[in-house]
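Key result, reporting period 2: structure in, sequence out.
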């Protein structure tokens, strides 16, 4: 039976550690590198939410593709099969929903994302995913 792993990635060091863990722990697995495009995230210096237009979405998808390339750059893929997926929504809910959409068996995610304080054991997104996911979840610190 082949293993399919969903690895949410937001560009953080914890997400990168999760990707490397998944590759090391599940050689020859199908890895679905996933990015949640958060329409409620504001960028540094922005006082308001972005306009949700097709141009904005295309820009976000382009940024996600660049993130995926950076994530895979210089790592040993250990024979894994890579797929990339994005979806729009709040990260935790989008990650949980992505399991069914991508037909993955497990989630491997970083304990904290880009914005999370690292003094807690887990960030909010990781905590919600652990509680709501229908498949096993491994949280990597």
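The corresponding designed sequence is given below.
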């Amino acid at each position: 039976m082949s293993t399919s792993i969903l690895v949410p990635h937001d560009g953080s060091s914890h997400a990168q550690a999760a990707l490397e863990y998944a590759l090391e722990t599940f050689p020859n697995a199908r890895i679905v590198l996933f990015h949640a495009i958060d329409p409620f995230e504001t960028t540094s210096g922005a006082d308001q939410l972005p306009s949700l237009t097709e141009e904005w979405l295309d820009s976000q998808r382009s940024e996600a593709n660049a993130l995926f390339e950076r994530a895979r750059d210089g790592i040993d893929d250990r024979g894994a099969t890579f797929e990339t997926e994005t979806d729009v929504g709040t990260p935790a809910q989008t990650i949980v929903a992505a399991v069914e959409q991508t037909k993955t068996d497990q989630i491997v995610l970083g304990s904290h994302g880009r914005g999370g304080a690292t003094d807690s054991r887990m960030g909010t997104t990781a905590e919600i995913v652990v509680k709501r996911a229908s498949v096993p979840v491994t949280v990597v610190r």
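The chain has a mean pLDDT of 90. DSSP finds four helices and five strands in the chain. This case is discussed further under Risks and Mitigation.
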